[in-house]
Amino acid sequence: MRYRESALAMKNNHAEVMQSLADEHDVLAALIGADRVHYLDIPMHRNIGDLLIMSGTLRFFERYQIRIGVKAAYFSYRTRWALPNDVIVFQGGGNFGDLYDGHQQARHSVIQALPRNRIIILPQTIHFRSKDAYEECCKTFSQHPDLHICVRDRSSYELALPMSRHVYLLPDMAHQLWPIQRSRHPESRHLALMRVDKERANAIATDFDLRADWEELFQRSEKRRIQRACRLLRALHLMHFSLARVSHGLDLWVEYVGKFIDDAVHLFSRFDIITTDRLHAHLLACLMGIPNTIWNNSYGKNHTYAAAWTGSSDIVQLGQSVLPDEKSPTDKYGETQNT
Q1: 164: alpha, beta or left? (left if phi > 0; alpha if psi -120 to 50)
Q2: How many CB atoms lie within 10 A of CB 327?
Q3: What domains, with CATH codes, occur in the chain?
Q4: Distance of CA 221 to CAs 193, 226, 228, 266, Å?
Q5: What pTM value is reported for the model?
Q6: How far apart are CA 18 and CA 214, in angstroms?
Q7: Model confidence pLDDT, tens digit, residues 137-175
Q8: How far apart are CA 207 and CA 226, in angstroms?
Q9: Closest by Cα among 152, 135, 164 to 95
Q10: Among 29, 103, 224, 295, which residue has the least CB neighbours within 10 Å?
C-alpha cells in the first residue's frame, strides 16, 4: 500500500508539492518495464479533465520511454490485438463505477478476456451507486492474477482492496504536465468554473468576474466536429478496419484535441484566482501555479483528493470548513444515494 498522511496537515511550498506528486508515478514505470503498452479508453469527448489526464499520461510514457503499441477508445479495442507480453493500460479519471456504463463494461470485458496479460488501471476515483454492481465488479476483477488498480484517494483505495491484491494510492496523471506556463498576463481577478452536470453539488462562488462550465467555453461547431470524429472511429471499428488505420485515426484525434487544452490554459491565464467544483479545473490551476479554491462535487471526490495530495500546497484552499465524513465502502454504493 502506498499512502501518505493527510495533505491538509500542513502547508508547503507549491512547487515542491507539485514536483513530488509527479515523481509518485515512478512505481508505474517499474510495473510496465520494457514491454509494449496498449493504452485504452482514450477520451473521445471535449471534457478538459479527461484530456488533461490523457496528455499527462502521454507525457509519462514519453518521460519513461515507454512504447505505445496500441491506442484505442473504450469502444474500439479488440482483445485479439494483445500479444502475450503486452501490458494493458487503462486511462485514469473518474469513470470507475456505475455512473458511466460504457467505460466500466469495457474494463470488465478486457479483464475477463486477457487473464495472462498484466493490466494496469491508472489512477481513478471509484464510485458505485449500486451494491450489486460493486460486488459484481469485485467478483470479476479479483479473478485476474495480474490486475493492478491505481486510485486517487483513500475511500477508493478501500473500495479497490476486494478487487485486486495490487492496489496503489497515486495522484492523477495530469500531474505529469507540471509546470504549465501562463499564456498571457492576468486581466481579471476571479474565475468560477462550476459544474452543471450530474456531479454538481451545492457549491457557492461569489464576487466572480466570469462563471461558466467547460461545456460553455467551446463553440457548437467544435462539438459537431468531435461528434463526427467519434462516429468515424466507431464506423472503422464496426467495419473491422486494420489496427494501423484505427491507431492513425486516434493519433489525429490526440493532435486535434490538444487545442482544447491550449484554450483552457489561455482562459485560466486571464485570472488571478480560480474557484471550482471540477477536480481538473483545480488541477489545471495548480499546474499553472494559480491560487484556487476547490469545492466538493456530488459524491466527495474533490476534497478526498485534496486530503491525499494537493491540500498541502500553500495556494490551495477548500471551499468549506470541513471534509465530508469518512464513510465505509458500503456507504459509498448505497442504493439511495443522490448523485
Answers
A1: beta
A2: 14
A3: 7-177 (3.40.50), 188-329 (no CATH)
A4: 22, 9, 11, 20
A5: 0.86
A6: 24
A7: 999 999 999 999 999 999 999 999 999 999 999 999 999
A8: 34
A9: 152
A10: 224
